[in-house]
Amino acid sequence: MTPEQKSFFRERGYILLKKTLTKNQVGPIKEHILDELKRLKLWSSGKAMSASIKKMPAFQQIAKLSGMIKQNEIHTKVITQAASSTIASLTESKVVQAQSQLLISLPNQGGWTLNGLNWHTDISSSSPDLVPGIQAFVLIDDVKPHGGATLAMAGSHLLKNHSELSRIREVLREKGDIEEELRSSDLSIVEMAGQAGDLYLMDMRVLHTPSINSTTSIRMMATVRYLLE
Ligand SMILES: O=C(O)CCC(=O)C(=O)O
Questions:
Q1: What pLDDT is recorded for position 173?
Q2: CATH code, domain with 36
Q3: Per residue in 121-136, pLDDT tens?
Q4: Can you tell me which atom of ligand 1 is nearest the CA of 101?
Q5: Residue 82: CB partners within 8 Å, gap ≥ 6?
Q6: Cβ of 101 below 6 Å from ligand 1
Q7: Which of 140, 165, 166, 213 is a Cys-bridge partner for 220, taking CB atoms 3.0 to 4.6 Å apart?
C-alpha cells in the first residue's frame, strides 16, 4: 500500500486493487454458483428455469439469490493475507470480520439507469473522522459496465452534515442529470466493474447501491464486511 493509495482511499472512500486473486482461485467459486443455480432450478444453460425469480424486481432478485446460494467460509477464499493487511493498514486499527455473502444478479434485468436505485450505508459512523469499517467487494467473474456491479458514491463519506446528505439523496431521487449534479459536489459514481479477482475496498460510510444488470452475463461478486474491533 503506497502513501498515494492511502490518501486516495481517505479522499474518495474506496480503492481498487486489481487481480488480487487468480482465475484458479475464483474458478471454483464460480463453478459452485453455477452448480447451485442449476440445483435450485433457477438458471441453467443461459436460461432462467424459474419464472417467479425472473419476474421479481431486480433488487429483490439479488436478495433472494444471496439468501439461497451460500459458500462456506467465503471470506477465507476471497480475501488474501495481503488484502487483509491492506484493510488493517487503511483503518489503522484492528478489525473483525463481520457478515459475508455472495452477490448474484441474473442477466437481462432491464435498461441500465441511475434512477430508482437503493442508495444506503450499512452502518452509521460514531465520528466523522473515523473509518468505522471497510466493506470488501470481490469480482468472482468478469463484470462489464452496466453488468450489475455495486455502485459507490465516491466522496460521500466526507459529507459532514445532515443537510448535505439530504440534498444528495434528493438529487438521487430526481430524474435529472445526476452525474452533472454530483460533479459540483466533488462526488462521483464508481461502478465496481472489472475482471475476475479484482477487489474494491470501500469505507463503510460511503453511500452505495445495487445496480441493474443489463448485460447477458450473470453478475457474480462476493462481499465481506470488516468492522473496527
Ligand atoms: O451489489 C449489490 O448487490 C449491493 C451490495 C450492497 O448494497 C451491500 O452489500 O450492502
A1: 79
A2: 2.60.120.620
A3: 888 766 767 899 999 9
A4: 9
A5: 20
A6: no
A7: 140
